[in-house]
Amino acid sequence: MDSMSNTKGGNAGSSTNDNTGHDSLSSPGRTIDSSTGHLSHSSIESSDSSGASIGDKTSKARTYDEDSVVRGGFYADPSTNESLDTGLKTATAWSSNFWLKPEPVVPDTPERIPTGYTISEPGSIVEGSGRTYNGYREGKYLLPNDGAEQDRLDFQHEIFRIAFDGALTLAPIGEPSRVLDIATGTGIWAFEFAESYPNSQVVGTDLSLIQPPRNIPNCTFVREDSEELWVHGFKFDYIHMRQVCTCFDNDMAVIQQAFNHLNEGGWMEIQDGYLELNSIDGTTEGTSLQRFIDLVHSGFRAMGRDLLKAKYYKKWLIQAGFVDICEKRLPVPINPWPQEPRFKNLGRYQNANFHQAVEAISLKTLPKAGLSQVEARDLMAQADRDHNNQAIHGYCSIYVVYGRKPCAWEISSQKLPSALNQ
Ligand SMILES: C[S@@+](CC[C@H](N)C(=O)[O-])C[C@H]1O[C@@H](n2cnc3c(N)ncnc32)[C@H](O)[C@@H]1O
């Protein structure tokens, strides 16, 4: 068991042995097979009209079998044929079965216990694929917000912790009083930060309120579109955002607003994946994985999102007025091909993460890039196989960029070098 996985908060699952001989780690509603790394959701839980439901058997949530089919925004309970209004809005009807999962590759998946929480947010939208998307500011965010994506985000969090040698932040933040985590997702970073800094008050914001009730008193969540006017009644000492390259129409405006909402001397830090496939020996050239990534970029671009925007963060921080800016780019192998144990481990996590992400990042992008559903499905399967192939020595990267809001007296001093000269 990975030590960091063990220290995770949330509900610890139980370990069982199924008749395949694989150890499987289970938690309420979800199971991960530690040999295949495949997550299975044993149930979908929907709430009554009072609010979000939680994959916690102690909650008031009602449980339905996952075989229940999502139709017209309703989960149909197969035992009674009863349709239940979950508060989910519907987009297109599901008429075909083209968006099957890619043929299973079996990544060497590190063991990790999922938190066991699935927050199914009323007002979310079930699309034709069966995946669920944010209903608040509908259409603004292009990835799902459902249980499978929530698990993936929590899993992906481990990649950052490994890449940062266990740290949550690389900026020299000291002991910040007030902390903001923009686009917090499941809130996993915010929760862990709040636990590590008990004297900090941490606020996480997101379009989707998919953060489980963890009873960590110095951590709260607010629904907010970060591209609109922020309504917090105080300023922050540290503002963090991670994995946001798919989020904003105008990143510079978000960074500027962060600058305005920081106390003097406060830090902003952006941590983001960089989906550019490199290799040490040319083995990625001509692969289906490379083609897949190119088409995903092209699909995102067609919808106004540049997945390679992290290379501009430093420039944008300078333009916003930050100083002491630091930019780092860390390699993340696509699978465990490297010999070094640390990178081998990072590659194991990244391989499993890609396997879980491939559908979510394809659903809207590959059709935009001109692929038919059948072509898309085939390419997804081939890309997944390439990603798992240790003869392909590829790597992507993580960008980390941080900067400090200068004090007023620093800006007025003519002796200091201009931030723009950095
Ligand atoms: C890839 S997830 C990253 C979540 C989290 N930061 C992490 O690293 O685990 C991106 C998150 O950004 C949120 N998001 C997208 N657009 C947003 C916006 N305009 N304002 C606030 N949150 C947004 C999404 O709902 C989603 O939860």
UniProtKB/TrEMBL annotation:
Q: Where is the composition biased (Low complexity)?
A: 32-56
Q: Out of the domains of life, which is the source?
A: Eukaryota
Query: What keywords appear on the UniProt entry?
Result: Methyltransferase, Transferase
Q: Which InterPro entries does the UniProt entry name for this protein? A: SAM-dependent_MTases_sf
Compositional bias (Polar residues):
1-29
What would be an example GO MF term here? methyltransferase activity
What does UniProt give as the signal peptide span?
none
Q: Where is this region: Disordered?
A: 1-64
One Gene Ontology term from the biological process aspect of the record: methylation
Q: Does the keyword Transferase apply?
A: yes
- So what family is this one in? Belongs to the methyltransferase superfamily. LaeA methyltransferase family.
Specify the protein name.
S-adenosyl-L-methionine-dependent methyltransferase
Q: Which organism is it from?
A: Pseudomassariella vexata
